[in-house]
Structures are given as structure tokens and as C-alpha cells.
Amino acid sequence: MNSIFFEVLIAPAFESEALAILQSKKNRILLEQKQNLSDTVMFKGVLGGVLTQGTDQGNVTTWNEAGGRTCNEAEKADLLFANIVCKHLKSNAIALVKNKQLIGKGCGQTSRIDSLRQAVEKAKQFSADLKGAVMASDAFFPFDDCVRLGHEAGITAFIQPGGSIRDQDSIDYCKQNGLAMIITGLRHFKH
Fold first, then answer.
1. Are 160 and 139 in contact (CB under 8 A)?
2. Which residues, other chains included, contact 142 with Cβ-Cβ below 8 Å and sequence gap of 6+?
3. Mean pLDDT for all residues in the chain
4. How far is CA 14 from each of CA 8, 29, 61, rounded to the nearest angstrom?
């Protein structure tokens, strides 16, 4: 480690032998971290201030099969992975996954449908086959437009938190078209 260039090293403690080696570099700064950093609050600098938000601690604990069929084991694995990916994307996030591989993502858009269009387009740019892929959303579907567009692109299963007063529109579309839909009750939202 001593041969790698770095100016600052932060650690919970330093053994005396390691400290002697690490201090051999003249301008290297060694800091001992006295307490753990909070993993429950995030701070983001914005023009003229700071945005504070809780960190997303959630993983899927509720698995409500609400669509037109039960998802198969491969879809379930992909949906769980897509949901984790989605958790780390910026708001209005959409993650498209197939075989535990992210093949398209859309995020930071002003609407969920725009994020989905971005994700589908990105998948097409890389010649990814969306037939049989799954889709995760960080928030509910206020209309059935995302489920409809996803289905047209080849998506067969969806995972979302639910909670819209119009959840039934997306659920009904899935039921009419034999698509799996999982509602978790857990919303991810990252600014």
C-alpha cells in the first residue's frame, strides 16, 4: 500500500508498524476516524444551500404478486437485482435487467415515461434484446403508460412500490396481458 500514491488515508486505527511505514512519505496525511459516519442521512450541496435526505435503507421485504401471473424464478432473480440497481439511480429511475445484467437505464428525467424511453433507447443502442427482460421503477406508476411501453418493448415482469391512486390501471394492464407485476410497498427516491 505504501507504494501507491495517495495524499490522505483515513482508518479507524493504525498499528504502530503500519504507522511507521505510512509516515515515511513526507506529505502524506493520516487521519484516525474516531466515530462512524452516519449512514442514515445524505447531504448534497445545492446552489446556496444543502439538501438533506435520508439514505435508502430498504430492500424488498414485501413481495405482492399483483399482475396477471406469478413471476418465474429467473424473473424473480432479475427483479430483485433490478430493484437494487434502481435504488441507486436518480429519481424517476427505471432499470431494465435480463439475466442479472443491466441492459438499459433511465433516470433523472422529469417523468417516469421519459426515463423508460431513455432506458429502452439505451438498450437498443447496445443491441440488447429486451424480450423477456424485467423492469424496476423507483416509484409507483401513476398511469399504465410505462407498463404498456415496457410490454411493447419486450418486458415481461415489473417491480414497483405501488401507492398511486391509479395503481389498478397498471395492474389491470398486466392482468389483461399475462405480465407479472410485483408491488413492494417500498419507494426508492434519490435526488
1. yes
2. 112, 164, 166
3. 89
4. 14, 13, 39
| CA gap 116, 68 in Å, rounded | 21
What residues form DSSP beta bridges with 49? 46
Nearest to 136 by CA among 167, 191, 164, 98: 98
Q: Which residues pair with 10 in a beta bridge?
A: 31
| Residue 97 near residue 133 (C-beta atoms within 8 A) | yes
Residue 38, pLDDT > 70, answer: no
Domains annotated on the chain, with CATH: 64-183 (3.40.140.20)
- pLDDT one-digit tens code per residue, 95-146: 999 999 999 999 988 898 999 999 999 999 999 999 999 999 988 888 899 9
pTM above 0.90, yes or no: no
Location of C-alpha cell 441507486: 88
Amino acid occupying residue 20: A
> Cell numbers 493504525 correspond to what residue?
14
Q: Say how many C-beta atoms besides its own lie within 10 A of residue 163's C-beta.
A: 15
Residue 154's region, left for phi above 0, alpha for psi from -120 to 50, else beta, is left
List the Cα angle 83/131/147 in 5-degree steps: 55
Q: Which amino acid is at 58?
A: G
